[in-house]
Write a structure and sequence with these properties.
339 residues; mainly alpha; 14 helices; 0% strand
Length: 339
């Protein structure tokens, strides 16, 4: 199972490269108004498919069991959707005086505004042996919360409300995200046994649709005669993405204080859920908020880099975090008084 999951992640990363390369070679196919008609097939059908798929695969019963950990949920959601974007904004004020492309900097801000993903944080928490139920709940709840909070944050930090009406953002998000999710959950109730028996490739379906969205996004970019991205800016963006490690360290420090009340298993869930950002929700949301924007792909680049980076960094750190958690759990058992 782990091998299949690793292969799926590698396939998806290769798929991103192929999608961008194909868009570079022949952008006219997926451009707005082109043969693929992305203004319909992507903006509505593809996005709705992703979230119907998520609703169909999400195990509601596993999430409800984690509801009682209110302090843990508050910590993760506040860090993800308040502290993270605010800290990135402050950091970008310093970088704004450099020669880095301003739209890449705006893209970094969009990374900070994104909710946690439903998959990677859960997978890595499970690999370490942390609080998987808390990771599942917060990843799913954060995605739902992000439907409302993320557009607000994007409008606050990037001021895109002047080009996209506020009401149209939420109406389109509601129809393409909320409604398909709810329908997926309803359908799941009736075919639950079949789903658990057959185990459809939900991840592969969402990834395939997402690659189509990425492809059409870059078709728009490469068809723009004003597209220009210097290597210096891209290298710096790659370096700046490493700030995720700093955020992971911060969550570790905060959650392991003596008066925090979190167990080592809770800390593992906090580290991954608080610092991971959703590409599945992020790209469609950027497609909606910045629809028709000539710099949409530049804005999307940091998120496209952050997604594989967070999986790679998390995978590398799994043995170290697991070793720490096991030693802490042993220490707690040793210090407990015997009855």
């Amino acid at each position: 199972m782990r091998l299949l999951e690793r292969m799926r992640k590698e396939w998806f990363m290769i798929g991103i490269v192929v999608a961008i390369a194909a868009a570079k070679l022949e952008p006219s196919v997926g451009v707005h108004g082109g043969p693929l008609k992305p203004e319909i097939t992507v903006s509505y059908i593809a996005v709705a498919t992703i979230f119907f798929n998520s609703g169909l695969s999400l195990k509601t019963e596993e999430l409800t069991s984690a509801l009682v950990h209110l302090k843990l949920h508050l910590f993760i959601q506040i860090f993800t959707l308040a502290f993270f974007p605010a800290a990135v904004w402050l950091f970008l004020q310093l970088l704004s005086i450099t020669s880095i492309n301003e739209w890449l900097l705006k893209g970094l801000q969009t990374v900070g505004c994104m909710p946690p993903p439903v998959s990677s944080a859960v997978i890595l928490t499970k690999a370490v042996g942390g609080n998987e139920a808390a990771a599942i709940f917060n990843s799913a709840f954060g995605s739902f919360l992000g439907i409302v909070v993320t557009p607000l944050l994007l409008l606050l930090f990037l001021g895109s409300s002047s080009s996209v009406p506020f009401t149209s953002i939420f109406s389109q998000l509601f129809m393409t995200v909320v409604v398909p999710l709810i329908i997926g959950q309803i359908v799941r109730r009736y075919i639950k046994e079949w789903l658990e028996r057959k185990k459809p490739p939900f991840g592969a379906i969402s990834s395939s649709v997402l690659l189509m969205i990425i492809y059409t996004t870059f078709c728009d970019t490469f068809s723009n005669p004003h597209f220009d991205l210097d290597k210096f800016s891209l290298i710096l963006i790659l370096f700046i993405i490493s700030i995720q490690l700093s955020f992971m360290l911060l969550t570790f420090i905060f959650s392991t204080r003596n008066n925090s009340g979190f167990t080592p298993a809770d800390t593992v869930a906090i580290i991954f859920c608080s610092t991971h950002k959703s590409l599945t929700l992020g790209i469609p949301m950027l497609k909606i908020v910045f629809a028709g924007h000539e710099h949409l792909s530049l804005i999307s680049v940091p998120l496209l880099i952050y997604h594989p980076a967070q999986i790679l960094l998390g995978s590398v750190l799994v043995p170290t975090i697991k070793s720490w958690m096991v030693s802490r759990q042993k220490g707690v058992k040793l210090t407990r008084p015997t009855v």
